[in-house]
Amino acid sequence: MPSPQLPHETLTNIFTYFPHPDDLLFHCRPRSTLFYCSLVSKDWRAAALPLVWSTLRFDTMLEKHTIESLRRSMTNSRPDFACRITQSIAYVTTISLTLPPSEPGWAQAAASLLNLLSPEQLRKIHLIFRFGSTDLDTSHLLATVFPHLTRNLRHLIIASFANSGQEGDIVLRHLPPSLRTLYITNATSPNAKQDIPYNFSRMFSLTKLTDLRLVHVHHIPVAEFAAFLRTYGRTLCSLRLQNCPEIQSDIILATIAAHCSRAVTQNPHNYDPAVQRIRDAAYYKVDTLYSVLPAWPPLYQAQYSRWTDDADQASQLPSESEGASWLNGVWSWITQRVSGRVSK
Amino acid sequence: MSDPANITLVTMDGTTFTVPSAYLHRSKLVQDWLRSEGDKQAMEVKHVTPFVLQGVLNFCEIHAEDTSEPLADPADPTKPFEADPRDDAFRGMPDDQLLQFTMAADILQIPELVRLTAQEMASRIDGKSPDQIRAMFNPDDLAEEDVDSDNEMGEVGEEGAISK
Question: What CATH number is given to the structural domain containing A195?
Answer without folding.
Answer: 3.80.10
